[in-house]
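Input structure tokens:
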């Protein structure tokens, strides 16, 4: 059966090269007589897998030596609690709320200290990124928190907030490895891998060493103590071994195509094809302020719910999966992560042109 073009927001499309390699190694990894799925996490062979994955990620992102890289479990949402538990020394944090996940993180953090919402785009259904050049950052804030790319609403920070010297924490789940970033501008970078890197079940945490603490409150579970996780090399307990193995293959795939600079160029080309069509047709329109558009997640609407339902249905029949938009935005959403080939975006646009022509008598 022919593979579909999968526009899911996550779990999402993976590189075919990676899937084929994993398929070939499924029963017998490098002659060891077993699958990575069956392998002890304490074995020399798995240590080689996780060490190589970390080394490749460090190379790709240019991660300095004074940052720890952790491969953990629980999904990014677990970090809504882990971050304040580990970083709140003064018991104060500032949050910029630009979407559902930042909002959930903001609400969760309130269980552990005083949390200030210093900017938000809730007034216009999170369709833009607020001006973050001169925010009322709290003098005693332990950190400033953002969700860097908003999966549901299709916005992203093209310029990082001015945190006025305070530690920046970023959930990068849906833009992880989409292009180069300056790691040293952040105290913590974290995200679930299921959108842009690997299968669901792994979260990667990149944290500056000075933020790891021995003096955490007694209520912090050992599993959520990031210093314990770092001291144990992500192996305080059994890590998500197979997911880490796939992540490692994706890191090598990105390296093989030229690294993060080349990946960003590819992503910009893909996004331009879809946005150019959205800006120059009579039926579909984007929902995001142009300057804040994401390269990863592209929501769009027609304005007629019946026609939108018809579009999603006919698109599915034509081999374009998971285009229905999130319920809070409606319409459609195309997630065009790293592994989505440019041919998939071109094919989607051709389908949209065909749909527009066939339904021109009933435009939104």
């Amino acid at each position: 059966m022919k593979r579909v073009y999968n526009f899911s927001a996550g779990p999402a499309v993976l590189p075919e090269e990676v899937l084929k390699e994993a398929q070939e190694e499924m029963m017998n990894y490098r002659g060891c007589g077993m699958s990575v799925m069956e392998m002890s996490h304490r074995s020399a062979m798995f240590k080689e897998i996780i060490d190589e994955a970390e080394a490749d990620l460090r190379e790709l992102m240019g991660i300095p030596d004074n940052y720890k890289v952790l491969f953990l479990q629980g999904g990014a949402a677990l970090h809504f609690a882990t971050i304040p538990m580990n970083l709140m020394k003064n018991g104060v944090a500032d949050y910029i709320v630009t979407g559902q996940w930042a909002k959930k993180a903001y609400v969760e953090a309130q269980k552990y200290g005083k949390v200030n919402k210093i900017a938000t785009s809730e007034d216009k259904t999170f369709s833009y990124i607020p001006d973050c050049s001169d925010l009322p950052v709290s003098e005693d804030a332990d950190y400033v928190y953002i969700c860097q790319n908003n999966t549901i609403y299709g916005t992203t920070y093209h310029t990082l907030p001015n945190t006025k010297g305070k530690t920046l924490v970023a959930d990068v789940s849906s833009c992880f490895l989409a292009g180069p970033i300056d790691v040293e501008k952040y105290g913590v970078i974290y995200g679930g891998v299921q959108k842009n890197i690997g299968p669901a079940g792994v979260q990667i945490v990149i944290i500056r060493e000075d933020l790891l603490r021995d003096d955490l409150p007694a209520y912090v579970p050992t599993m959520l103590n990031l210093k314990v996780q770092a001291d144990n090399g992500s192996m305080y307990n059994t890590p998500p071994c197979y997911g880490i193995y796939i992540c490692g293959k994706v890191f090598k795939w990105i390296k093989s195509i030229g690294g993060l600079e080349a990946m960003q160029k590819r992503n910009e080309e893909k996004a331009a094809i879809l946005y150019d069509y959205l800006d120059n047709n009579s039926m579909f329109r984007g929902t995001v302020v142009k300057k804040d558009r994401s390269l990863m997640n592209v929501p769009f609407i027609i304005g007629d719910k019946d026609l939108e339902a018809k579009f999603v249905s006919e698109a599915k029949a034509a081999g374009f999966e998971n285009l229905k938009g999130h319920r809070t935005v409606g319409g459609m959403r195309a997630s065009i992560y790293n592994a989505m080939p440019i041919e998939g975006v071109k094919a989607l646009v051709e389908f949209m042109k065909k749909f527009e022509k066939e339904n021109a008598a009933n435009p939104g």
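The chain has a mean pLDDT of 96. The longest strand covers residues 114-120.
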